[in-house]
Write a structure and sequence with these properties.
flat; 5-stranded mixed beta sheet; single chain; mainly alpha; about 5% strand
Length: about 575
């Protein structure tokens, strides 16, 4: 029986000299107490050495997965024909048996034998000391740990954090230096600031021009456009700036050199950052871009820390101050943070930015976890996610357009109810009703009922007017009597005699009449009890509008009656 033993230096194959001792498992350790007793138990038959560390790591990884490597298969084919092989892993033994047709065993006796071999390994293999085994074991274990943790020097995200921080600092310094150049050179040529807007182009033009008197004789074709160049030369002739000395111009040009050199270094740094992002987080780069992805990694601290965050955190990463202020004041929380600067969010309409940022954050988390923990180094997940997000954006924009134009699918067409329509019948059972315009005309139609009611009302009004006239005349007569009593008694007696004589000559009237009252005097309507209540009825008060609305014929009759009574 042969025993397969793995070492950091290679594979060792031992021959068991006394298989009978394997039956006593409890006493097997005694056979490996010394090197002499171990040599009587086993003997080295063959040894396969690893050529380099990469081969050792590959073979070890195949053993971890319980699979034999190509070198091991060749070694066993050459040395184990017709023999039984003892292995430390049962799954590895099954794989060897299926692939090489070699019988393999794995039991307690084999495991105890492996422990003894490990204890006396340096004595059983000639030329392999413990000083050689230790560094080889340490190096192989480190390589194996890196492989198990998927660690690679190319995946170091610290470089990205430092690069994006330096890039932001360079942007601030460039803006500061460029504004200083504009202010400094503006004393000499103030019109140039409005003609050339770009800071880098401005610094290059200032460095080339120097004094504005030289502008007409210089060629700016490699820096600015032709129309801008002609405008610059025209402005240089009529400039209102002051003159500066050569020493001042030298310092201004030196500052321009600093701006140009910083801008060139920024371009190089941006290229480096883009290459690092494509190597470390390709899927995240496809979704949100190099700068936004690098800022997300820098804000989280590392790519692994960013992969641990949920989508809701990634969505508002960078807006923590606004989030806690909103929670404190009980206002609306922010919808996006650093992810707002992604191209997909910028393409969306203002009302759709919240929805797109939420969807983008969800897809970004999947891409980040794929970049941090996945084995594949391609960007298929990022490309698929971006295509889905673009389709989602087009769908949302289509819904908005449909809602504006009134053709949205969500609108239900409600048909009016008609009792003549039966279920399942597409049309009406009866003919549609037509409009009759003749029904609108009311000319020539008699209204006998209304006429009769008008006559009755007119008679009532006439009776009421007659009764009120009598009441008013009676009241006026009493007022006159009271006024007469104030005169001397003699005059009163004479008037009384005179009235009595007139009364004897004239016939008595039912109602006293006042001849001096004018017809235009308005009637006073009051309620009063009368002796003639049984014959005429109760007094009814009516407004003047209803009295005036009486017919023309009734008014004429009333005037005639008043004239007759006055006569």
């Amino acid at each position: 029986m042969l025993v397969l033993f793995e070492t950091p230096a290679g594979f060792a194959l031992f021959k068991v000299l006394d298989e009978g001792k394997l039956n006593r498992v409890e006493d097997l350790w005694k056979e490996f107490e010394t090197s002499e007793s171990a040599r009587t138990m086993v003997k080295l038959k063959a040894f396969s050495k690893f050529e380099n560390t990469a081969e050792a790591l590959g073979a070890t990884m195949r053993l971890v997965e319980s699979k034999p490597s190509k070198g091991l298969c060749k070694f066993l084919k050459a040395e184990c024909q017709g023999e039984t092989l003892a292995v430390a892993d049962s799954k590895l033994g099954n794989a060897i048996k299926e692939k090489l047709k070699i019988d393999c065993i794995h039991n307690n006796e084999v495991m105890e034998l492996m422990r003894g071999l490990r204890a006396q390994l340096s004595e059983l293999i000639t030329g392999l000391t413990s000083q050689d085994i230790s560094p080889m074991s340490l190096g192989l274990s480190h390589s194996l740990s890196r492989y198990k943790l998927k660690f690679s020097p190319d995946k170091v995200d610290t470089m990205i954090i430092q690069a994006i921080g330096l890039l932001d600092d360079l942007d601030k310094e460039l803006n500061t230096y460029a504004m200083r150049v504009r202010e400094w050179y503006g004393w000499h040529f103030p019109e140039l600031a409005k003609i050339v807007q770009d800071n880098i182009q401005y610094a290059k033009v200032v460095k080339l021009t120097g004094s504005r008197a030289n502008a007409c004789n210089l060629d700016y074709s490699g820096i600015i456009l032709e129309d801008v160049e002609s405008e610059l030369k025209e402005a240089a002739l009529i400039s209102m700036g002051t003159e500066v000395s050569e020493h001042d111009m030298t310092n201004i040009k030196a500052l321009c050199d600093q701006v140009i050199s910083l801008s060139e270094y920024r371009g190089q740094l941006y290229d480096y950052l883009r290459s690092r992002m494509n190597a470390i987080a390709p899927n995240l780069t496809v979704l949100v871009g190099e700068l936004v992805g690098a800022r997300l990694i820098a804000h989280a601290g590392s790519l692994i820390n960013l992969a641990k965050q949920p989508a809701s955190t990634v969505q508002i990463l960078g807006a923590e101050k606004a989030l806690f202020r909103a929670l404190k004041t009980k206002h609306h929380t922010p919808k996006y943070g650093l992810i707002f600067h992604a191209s997909l969010v910028g393409q969306a309409a203002p009302k759709l930015k919240g929805k797109i940022s939420r969807s983008l954050a969800a897809k970004s988390v999947l891409s980040i976890r794929m970049d941090a923990l996945g084995e594949a180094q391609d960007m298929t997940v990022g490309l698929e996610s971006r295509a889905k997000l673009e389709a989602r954006l087009h769908q949302l924009e289509g819904k908005v357009l449909a809602r504006i134009s009134g053709i949205g699918k969500g609108k239900a067409q409600i048909e009016p109810y008609d009792r003549d329509r039966k279920q399942g019948v597409p049309g009406l059972l009866t003919t549609a009703r037509t409009y009759n315009p003749a029904a609108d005309s009311t000319i020539g139609e008699a209204k006998p009922e209304q006429k009769a009611e008008g006559e009755v009302e007119f008679k009532k009004i006439k009776k009421i007017q007659q009764f009120t006239e009598s009441v008013v005349e009676h009241q006026i007569e009493q007022v006159e009597k009271e006024a007469v009593t104030e005169e001397p008694l003699k005059k009163k007696k004479k008037k009384d005699k005179h009235k009595e004589q007139e009364a004897e000559n004239e016939e008595p009237l039912l109602f006293p009449v006042i001849t001096g009252a004018s017809e235009d005097e308005p009637l006073k309507k009051k309620k009063k009890k009368s002796k003639d209540r049984d014959s005429i009825g109760a007094v009814i008060e009516l407004p003047e509008e209803e009295v005036a609305s009486a017919g023309a014929e009734g008014q004429v009759e009333h005037d005639g009656d008043s004239l007759k009574s006055s006569k």
